[in-house]
TrEMBL record:
Species the sequence originates in: Planosporangium mesophilum
Keyword Amino-acid biosynthesis recorded: yes
Names of the cofactor(s): a metal cation
Name of protein: Homoserine dehydrogenase
Similarity field: Belongs to the homoserine dehydrogenase family.
């Protein structure tokens, strides 16, 4: 029986676990695929790096990833390096040459997925990327296959484990953002440079991938409205609690009419919402579809072994397709829906203002909301001598109207500061 020959690009956190699973599950994988998988090369940056007791022949290591991809005896290329270049060059080369590709590279897919999909069509090859969103959770295949008979209306997700750990810690202990980030760093959840996670870039890339699949429309990372969690304060978390809410970094992709909106930002959600109980570094994605109703996907969204599980699932799928002489359906972008700018998106808002505590202040503040057509749902005031904190929750309003309201409030001399503006979702 001819083996299916696999080239592995990258052997770090995810790659080492891919190697381990390929070795440990070899007999079962052979039975499931109908042919053995053979690892024929491993491209890394530092071939002499200590890699523990990894079950791989050291002679397979190379620094020439492109050379490995071009080898005639390679059937499947597995990319777990990350970044845009040189990964894009390697994968385009592989796909155009008819080699199936399995990748966990969310950054590349969200930046330039169409180029990869086009190369897959040119080479009549498979492109699978289950591990790129929400680690081990089977999510992209259900969107790409199981739900293809339905119309998805909304995808709401917690797709970044680091920020979910930080916000959960703030909620549980009352800690501030910096303190919770320090804890996440010590425990190994946050990277030395946490920017991609805490500023929402990682979640925005995943949101673009999810929205593209859910709405049959090309959505790139640049189309995603993005805010991170660095401005979320202990006071915001306490205020959310007082409202029966918790704060999560949400990815929200919604279809209304012939447009989609895709955004990533912190939001208050009721504690009764299914996503509110997703704690620690777990991920969860809530999918709403016309016929299916509400579906929830939950599990570990990162880590070497969980992510490698998703990679191996894809390897089995592409290997089976090769043996059967078929390939999976191409990119589905036929709907080509308009991307709705954030200003047109409507939601509810929680605004916290530091104001002077004297006659007419509340009326002046309420007047600014009224002038911009933003309807107030609740107001709560707590006094501090001559100063007060006003917490206002609005009914649904367009983001542009709320932004104009906040800009005008900042200009009032009775408003000392706009302490925070948070969206309220899930009601
Ligand atoms: P790591 O940084 O741990 O590993 C990267 C690997 O790529 C290393 O083996 C490195 O070599 C190799 N590499 C880097 N540059 C080159 C190059 N120019 N040529 C050849 N090899 C190179 O990354 P992760 O394993 O954490 O992530 C890999 C991918 O998986 C990324 O796209 C990431 O977004 C994605 N992902 C990661 C998850 C996780 O939990 N870690 C979860 C979901 C997705 P060397 O070992 O010599 O340094
Ligand atoms: N940094 C990411 C997270 C890893 O915290 O979820 C998984 O993509």
């Amino acid at each position: 029986m001819d083996p299916v020959r696999v080239a592995l690009l990258g052997c770090g956190t995810v790659g080492t676990e891919v190697v381990r699973l390929l070795h440990e599950q070899a007999a079962d994988l052979t039975a499931r695929i109908g042919a053995p998988l053979q690892l024929v090369g491993v491209a890394v940056r530092r071939p002499t790096r200590e890699r523990g007791d990894l079950p791989v022949d050291p002679a397979l290591f190379t620094t020439d990833a492109l050379g490995l991809v071009k080898r005639e005896d390679v059937d499947v290329v597995v990319e777990v390096v990350g970044g845009i270049e040189p990964s894009r060059t390697w994968l385009v080369e592989a796909l155009r040459a008819g080699k199936s590709v399995v990748t966990a590279n969310k950054a590349l897919l969200a930046e330039d997925g169409p180029t990869l999909h086009a190369a897959a069509v040119d080479g009549h090859a498979d492109l699978y990327y289950e591990a790129s969103v929400a680690g081990a959770i089977p999510l992209l295949r259900p969107l790409r296959e199981s739900l293809h008979g339905d119309r998805i209306t909304r995808v709401t997700g917690i797709v970044n484990g680091t920020t979910n750990f930080i916000l959960s810690a703030m909620d549980e202990s009352g800690a501030g953002f910096s303190e919770a980030l320090d804890e996440a760093t010590v425990l190994g959840y946050a990277e030395a440079d946490p920017t991609a996670d805490v500023e929402g870039f990682d979640a925005a890339a995943k949101a673009a991938i999810l929205a593209s699949l859910a709405f049959h429309t090309r959505v790139r990372a640049a189309d995603v409205y993005r805010e991170g969690i660095t401005e979320v304060s202990a006071a915001d978390v306490a205020s959310a609690k007082a409202m029966g809410c918790t704060i999560k970094l949400l990815c929200l992709a919604e279809r209304s009419g012939d447009a989609v909106s895709v955004r990533v930002h912190p939001a208050m959600i009721p504690r009764t919402h299914p996503l509110a109980s997703v704690g620690d570094a777990f991920n969860a994605v809530f999918v709403e579809a016309q016929a299916a109703g509400q579906l929830m996907f939950y599990g570990p969204g990162a880590g070497g072994a969980p992510t490698a599980s998703a990679v191996l699932g894809d390897i089995v799928a592409v290997a089976r397709n090769r043996l059967a002489g078929v390939r999976a359906a191409s990119e589905s972008a036929y709907a080509d829906l308009r991307i709705r700018p954030i200003g047109e998106v409507t939601t509810r808002y929680h605004i916290s203002l530091d104001v002077a505590d004297r006659a007419g202040v509340l009326a002046a503040v309420a007047g600014v909301f009224a002038d911009h057509g933003v309807s107030i749902a609740t107001v709560h005031q707590s006094g501090r001598g001559n100063e007060a904190v006003l917490v206002i929750v609005t009914h649904r309003a367009p983001d542009a109207a709320l932004a104009a309201t906040v800009a005008e409030l900042r200009g009032l001399d009775i408003v000392r500061s706009v302490a925070s503006v948070l969206r309220v979702e899930g009601e």
